[in-house]
Amino acid sequence: MSDDRPDNLDRLFYPKNVAIIGASPKSAGFLWGGNTFIEGMINCNFPGKIFPVHRNAESILGMKSYKSVLEIPEDIDFAIFSIPQSAVLKVMQECVEKRVRFVHLFTAGFSETGREENIRVEEELVRLAKKGGIRLVGPNCMGIFCPEGGLAWSKSLPSKIGSVGFVSQSGQLAGHFTGTGEHHGLSFSKVVSFGNASDLQCHDFLSYLAADDKTEIIGAYIEGLKDGRAFAEAARHITRKKPLVVWKGGQTEGGARATASHTASIAGSTDIWRSLCRQLGIISVNSLEEMVFTIIGLQKLPLPNGSRVAILGGAGGGSVTMTDVAETEGLKVPRLSEKTISALEQFVPLEGNSVKNPLDMMITLLDKKNFLKTMELLRDDPNIDALIFSQPVHWSHQVGGRAFMDMFIQMTYDGMKALEKPMIIALEQTHTLDGVVIRREVFEKYNAAGIATFPSFQSAAQIVSTMSRYQVFLNDH
Length: 477
Known about the structure:
By secondary structure, this protein is an alpha/beta fold. The chain folds into three domains: 10-140, 3-Layer(aba) Sandwich (Rossmann fold), CATH 3.40.50; 161-300, Rossmann fold (3-Layer(aba) Sandwich); 309-476, Succinyl-CoA synthetase domains (Rossmann fold, 3-Layer(aba) Sandwich), CATH 3.40.50.261. Helix content is 43%, strand content 15%. The protein has helices at residues 10-13, 34-43, 88-98, 116-131, 171-183, 202-211, 228-239, 253-263, 270-280, 288-300, 317-328, 338-344, 368-380, 393-419, 433-448, 457-476; strands at residues 17-21, 49-53, 59-60, 63-64, 78-81, 102-105, 135-137, 143-145, 161-168, 188-193, 217-222, 244-248, 283-285, 309-312, 386-391, 423-427, 453-454. The protein has a six-stranded mixed β-sheet with strand order 8-10-9-11-12-13, with helices on both faces. A five-stranded parallel β-sheet has the order 2-1-5-6-7, sandwiched between helices. It has a four-stranded parallel β-sheet with strand order 14-15-16-17, with helices on both faces. Strand 5 (78-81), helix 3 and strand 6 (102-105) form a beta-alpha-beta unit. The model is unreliable at 1-6 and 259-267 (pLDDT under 50).
């Protein structure tokens, strides 16, 4: 793609230099401001030049400061505004004179207020920028996080480069997503908080990520869309080659009202949204947790060929309720083939166990040979597409301490390879202090090995169901 085309956002994510307009020689404490962007860029090893701009300061954070963007002796790719709303028109005019390529308006107080005078200021900003060939991110947003390009709005953002892209109307949720995702082993290619979307909109960023070979999975949080048709067209092109996971805010009457005051957007009908997702192959989620775990599943697990699951790990009533949960989530829990049942009965005692599905046979599986044999049987069973394995990690520690627990983890890892079908691991919750510590340790060991785990059986079942539906969409298209 030519660097001169207006729809090329490469210099937004990989600028050669950045002007921080509104950086301060004084510490802002816990408040967000221009300096937090500088600190974030330093933490992400920004390879270019940073130019702080402040009308009185000589230096900021050890860097020479300039009184105006016009005084900077080099061309500017990207400028970040962290200035009062009353100053933005004057500074935008200076950026036009400087021929800045991209501007991010961290500044708020525009159309999201609903006030006519503030709306007019935003409209004038867009007019000035368009006249000068500047593309705008925002206003009223956190902007761009691209660890490979060295851009971050805070030093708390991770510097590790990954393959998950995320586009968010909300800056707060963009931050929560990166923090929660990092905790669970995700790393990011590009994250965008776009706020009011006065110029560059959701579909512009999605289209860029669709063509970005550094991004393999795309997530998004949206409240309302100014151009629903353009969004649908972008989604149509994405979902056939990359998963697109979207959390839609503003689906209730109160949420829609809050949406209007947050980013000046209009939320649409929930029924229309769900229909659109089904048609376009968008994976729709309803919470931050579901967003994170859906992306983890898509990144770390193969897509199942169908919705038929074996369940391992329950006992008695637990097996019954797990089956109910799985089928409520849209999965099927079929009887295993007679060949599989017959083979399992060769080493699983009849008393106190069940080998028909759900599999109530945990004690038997303390033997690695039996466990691997079970995985091979499920691999060859034509009735099964995936396995949900609910692991009582605190119990395994009580049985044999850390040595046994480590053996159990390794056995699971070997079993995943033997199964050759998706194994979805749910780490059972525990309410004792030592149980919480042990569960955390098991989670970290699986995470370090690149193995996906989920916080509950219901979460695991939900993710398998979502992934199987996406596979159906891909098969149909």
